[in-house]
Amino acid sequence: MPWPSRKRDKGAVADKKEPDAKIAKTEEETPDKEEEEKSAKPPAGSSKSGWKNWKKTKESDSGGEESKITYRHWLLKSEPESRLEKGVDVKFSIDDLKAQPNQTTFWDGVRNYQARNFLRAMKLGQQAFFYHSNCKEPGIVGIVKIVKEAYPDHTQFDQKDPHYDSSSRKENPKWSMVDVQFVRMTKRFIPLSEIKAHHLAHKADGGPLKNMMLFTRQRLSIQPLTQEEFDFVLSLEEEKPH
């Protein structure tokens, strides 16, 4: 039996003390405060040198040409710790994904229109970071891939589901989901605080994370990544944590 709705825009809330957005409209109108509050101050001098070294390597590989801004990679937020929502535990960690048949599951419960549109833009085989949110230390723990493109999210029609939507009709469903499959764990946990340190440095020197949606649209549980953003974050798994 599939797990109840366990991946959703609630996963975008990093601070448990902050009230959860109850519906998509509320979430969109709530100020973006969440994961910034969880982030530590960037370590002095730790990010710029890392970005410059990475940039030299990428320029060597590509002849210095800047990649076009297209979205072929994603970041998916989910909660690794138990939390009841309308009597249903919405916990779903990467270990829970690994325990599923064929290490595959549907990514249901998204009730934000922009996040839904990102789901609908996903293509077969594209990869995404699995991001633990709304926990003591948020961050990236693994990589998944899209194994089924967007189709109607059945939980919108289930009156027992926390994200039942009485206004959605089966002939014209409002909400979509995709199927994802576990690819691998990242070589190490990449915490939000470390990603933020690079983001702040890149805002100053024009690095690839300068516009990363993790910091410009923090509340979205489904976020697109440019090729440069994905590659740079992935390169962090090879570095020793600061």
Number of helices: 7
| CATH class descriptor name of one domain | Alpha Beta
CATH architecture of one domain: Roll
Strand order of the largest sheet: 4-7-6-5-1-8
**First CA to last CA: what distance?**
42 Å
Q: Sheet with the most strands? A: 6 strands, mixed
**Residue ranges: pLDDT <50 for 5 or more in a row?**
1-5, 14-46, 62-67
Write down the overall geometry: globular
Report what the structure shows.
This protein is α+β, with helices and mostly antiparallel strands. It has a domain at 73-237: ph1033 like domains (ph1033 like fold, Roll). The chain contains seven helices and eight strands. It has a six-stranded mixed β-sheet. Strands 2-3 form a two-stranded antiparallel sheet. Mean pLDDT is 81; it is low at 1-5, 14-46 and 62-67.
Provide a concise account of the structure shown.
With 242 residues, the protein is an alpha+beta fold. The longest helix is centred in the N-terminal third of the chain and has 15 residues, at 48-62.
Topology:
Blueprint: H1 24-29, H2 48-62, E1 71-78, E2 84-85, E3 88-89, H3 94-98, E4 104-107, H4 113-121, E5 127-132, E6 139-152, E7 176-191, H5 192-205, H6 213-216, E8 222-226, H7 227-235
Parallel strand pairs: 1-5
Antiparallel strand pairs: 1-8, 2-3, 4-7, 5-6, 6-7
Biased composition (Basic and acidic residues): 10-28, 56-66
Function: Specifically binds 5-hydroxymethylcytosine (5hmC), suggesting that it acts as a specific reader of 5hmC.
Biased composition (Low complexity): 41-52
